[in-house]
């Protein structure tokens, strides 16, 4: 059974873009900074056999209203929680985030865990090391001054392991198109939020069952960062996907689904 809609939901003075498929307990998917909801297309058909899957556009992305000013990860999480309430999903909702979405998912679980059944954080961590924080700050500046075109090449290279895009021109073109279409202001705001984030004081409040997933070859959020997050959340489970970069839903969809389905069932 497949259901599509609604296309958006009112949330805290703005709107959140939504795509809905499948049937069963709710599963909310949050995309990374460098992709959009379509990045989950290879895994949604399988997940939708077990769950009613909600792909949300994070604020400022994919048709969702941007947050004002310079939002923090807390602000993104609060907007997601408001959308979950507006969709009336119930307390058997699982949330999964990738990259940027994983930090938002973790903060949502920390602040709004009563709305959730479980949380999955893919390609994640507690905070970025100083050099990576600087990279996000620099990227925000470049986008502010030169638009999305100023970061297309470096951003696409960070999504996948070295050499992965060789022989995959269609995928490379699609990633570039997605990035080029993003709002520079929203992208810069998200970069600043990622540079400033530190979840170490918050994730002790995560009490729902948690699965942390890392890509062995992730250049953007290396596996050691996921190890740190898993260690900070009591009872969480850590899985490292071999030969995988920042987006397992694109690179290794079968391995990701094979990890998710038993966790979501149990």
Kindly list the characteristics that best describe this protein.
266 residues, alpha/beta, eight-stranded mixed sheet, 10 helices, 8 strands, 41% helix
Summarize the structure.
The protein has helices at residues 44-47, 73-86, 100-112, 130-146, 152-159, 169-180, 184-196, 223-232, 248-251, 253-265, and strands at 8-11, 14-22, 26-30, 52-56, 93-98, 116-122, 210-215, 237-241. It has 266 residues and is an alpha/beta fold. A hairpin with a 2-residue loop joins strand 1 and strand 2 (14-22).
Structure description:
The structure is a single chain. The chain is of the alpha/beta class. Helices cover 41% and strands 18% of the residues. It contains 10 helices and 8 strands. β5, α3 and β6 (116-122) form a beta-alpha-beta unit. α4 (130-146) runs antiparallel to α7. It is globular, with a radius of gyration of 17 Å. It starts with 7 loop residues before the first strand and ends with a helix. 50% of the residues are buried. The model has no long low-confidence stretch (mean pLDDT 94).
Radius of gyration: 17 Å
Order of helices and strands: EEEHEHEHEHHHHEHEHH
Distance between the termini: 22 Å
Largest sheet: 8 strands, mixed
Low-confidence parts, pLDDT < 50 over ≥5 residues?
none
Number of strands: 8
Q: If helices are DSSP runs of H or I spanning 4 or more residues, what is the number of helices?
A: 10
Q: Output the strand order for the largest sheet.
A: 1-2-4-3-5-6-7-8
Q: Structural class of the secondary elements?
A: alpha/beta
C-alpha geometry = globular
Helical proportion? 40-55%
Name the average pLDDT: 94
Beta content comes to 15-25%
């Amino acid at each position: 059974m497949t259901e599509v809609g609604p296309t958006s939901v009112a949330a805290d003075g703005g709107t959140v873009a939504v795509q809905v498929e499948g049937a069963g307990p709710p599963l909310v998917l949050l995309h990374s900074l460098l992709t959009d909801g379509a990045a989950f297309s290879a895994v949604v058909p399988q997940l939708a056999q077990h769950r009613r899957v909600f792909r949300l556009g994070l604020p400022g992305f994919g048709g969702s209203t941007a947050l004002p000013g310079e939002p923090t990860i807390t602000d993104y999480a609060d907007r997601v929680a408001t959308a979950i309430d507006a969709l009336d999903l119930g307390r058997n909702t699982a949330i999964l985030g990738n990259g940027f979405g994983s930090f938002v998912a973790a903060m949502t679980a920390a602040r709004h865990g009563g709305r959730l059944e479980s949380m999955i954080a893919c390609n994640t961590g507690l905070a970025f090391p100083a050099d990576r924080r600087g990279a996000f700050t620099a990227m925000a500046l470049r986008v502010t001054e030169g638009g999305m075109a100023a970061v297309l090449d470096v951003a696409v290279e960070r999504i996948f392991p070295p050499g992965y895009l060789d022989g995959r021109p269609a995928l490379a073109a699609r990633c570039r198109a997605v990035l080029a279409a993003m709002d520079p202001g929203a992208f810069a705001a998200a970069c600043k939020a990622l540079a400033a984030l530190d979840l170490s004081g918050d994730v002790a409040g995560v009490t729902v069952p948690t699965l942390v997933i890392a890509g062995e070859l992730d250049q953007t959020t290396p596996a050691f960062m996921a190890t740190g997050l898993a260690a900070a959340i009591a009872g969480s489970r850590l899985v490292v996907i071999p030969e995988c970069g920042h987006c397992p839903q694109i690179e290794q969809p079968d391995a990701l689904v094979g990890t998710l389905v038993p966790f979501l069932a149990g």
